[in-house]
Design goal:
Layout lengths: L16 E2 L11 H10 L12 H11 L6 E4 L2 H12 L3 E6 L3 H8 L4 E6 L22 E5 L11 H13 L3 E5 L24 E6 L12 E4 L3 H9 L8 H10 L3 H24 L3 E2 L6 E5 L4 H7 L2 E2 L1 E2 L10 E5 L3 H12 L2
Parallel strand pairs: 1-11, 3-4, 3-5, 5-6, 6-7
Antiparallel strand pairs: 2-8, 7-8, 9-10, 10-13, 12-13
Helix pairs in contact: 1-7, 2-7, 3-4, 3-6, 8-10
């Protein structure tokens, strides 16, 4: 069976409830929709290729200099511009994790080694990683919380990894795209380390936080301004559209929306995990806005027939048939999925 590489394939699976793509269940904020709509009056012009107003807004929100901010056509584009600019020869990836890291590295013929996370340890990243950081490596990709597992790496371990990377001249690319949905995320953020660690690149996105996947908007933070300059040089001009820039600026004002989304996700995630465990499913301890679990090998097809699109995770390196991920959605939608699961 051919499997969609990522979630969100609502184009070939119409009239389903999409649990495969992890968006803020509150939906796109009205203010963001209005800003994007109004910006269409300006599409006779090219976009600002420097994203000046958007970068200023991001810099203020992240408490960093604007010169440390680079915007992209989604976070995925930044992965490719980063590998093109840096041209690493050897990289370390954990497995399972986000598929696009490997794809971006393949684009520059980078050799890759993998640290396979152990199911008996809950697929948790541990201090074992430190032993794999050597002078032979050029770059390390980590996702916190990890995708698809939703597990967090403790800040203390991230700092140990970051220091070891600096010692061995390794660039640490830390993907924090799902950290927005973590309770007490301030305890895990490391943006305060950017000044002292120019070998740290933080990857972030508006996509999930504001439910605007279709607008394509992500950004990176790094104090190595030369690296950011090189990334800009290998990226096509005008890569962030006028509607995307307008949507991003408006989204950063939606602080109450983000707070309500986090509260809703915490409540609904607990509900889903409790219900699924009561059915005997093997559910991992996700802290993100999605849940990673093991179930019957035919569950994807059964769910699709019942009108639910879930994420089949067998195409993640290190996983096989029977591993799945579902998004945390509204209570009514979550309840419909749980009612169906109980009937299996």
């Amino acid at each position: 069976m051919e499997i969609q590489r990522h979630g969100g394939d609502v184009y070939r699976h119409k009239e389903v409830i999409d649990f495969s793509s992890n968006m803020n269940p509150l939906g796109t904020p009205q203010g963001v929709l209005e800003a994007a709509r109004e910006s269409l009056l300006n599409i006779v012009h090219y976009p600002d290729c420097f994203c000046t107003e958007l970068r200023q807004a991001i810099a203020k929100a992240e408490s960093v200099p604007m010169e440390w901010v680079l915007c992209g056509n989604g976070a995925a584009e930044l992965l490719f511009s980063l590998t093109l600019a840096r041209k690493p020869e050897r990289a370390l990836l954990v497995s399972p994790s986000f598929l696009e890291y490997e794809q971006a590295l393949k684009a520059v013929d980078c050799d890759m080694e993998y640290l396979n996370l152990k199911e008996e340890e809950g697929f948790q990243v541990t201090g074992e990683l430190l032993g794999h950081l050597t002078e032979e490596l050029d770059v390390l990709f980590l996702c916190n919380p990890n995708n698809p597992t939703g597990l967090l790496i403790e800040r203390e371990l991230v700092l140990e990894i970051l220091e070891a990377c600096r010692e061995h001249h390794i660039l640490l690319v830390l993907d924090e795209c799902f950290l927005d949905f973590v309770d007490g995320r301030e305890e895990y953020e490391v943006s305060d380390c950017l000044r002292d660690y120019p070998n740290l690149f933080l990857l972030k996105a508006f996509t999930k936080r504001y439910a605007i996947a279709g607008i394509r908007l992500g950004y990176g933070l790094c104090s190595d301004e030369l690296l950011l300059e090189r990334m800009g040089e290998v990226t096509q001009p005008w890569n962030v559209s006028i509607p995307a820039q307008a949507a991003g600026i408006a989204a950063l004002r939606e602080t109450e929306y983000v707070r309500r989304g986090i509260e809703m996700i915490r409540t609904e995630r607990d509900y889903l995990m409790r219900e699924m465990r009561s059915m005997g499913l093997s559910v991992f301890d996700s802290r993100a806005n999605y849940i990673f679990f093991r179930g019957p090998k035919e569950l994807y097809e059964q769910a699709l027939e019942a009108g639910f699109l879930i994420r089949d995770c067998r195409n993640y390196r290190g996983l096989t048939a029977g591993y799945y991920r579902i998004a945390v959605r509204t209570h009514a939608e979550n309840e419909r999925l749980m009612t169906w699961l109980r009937q299996l």
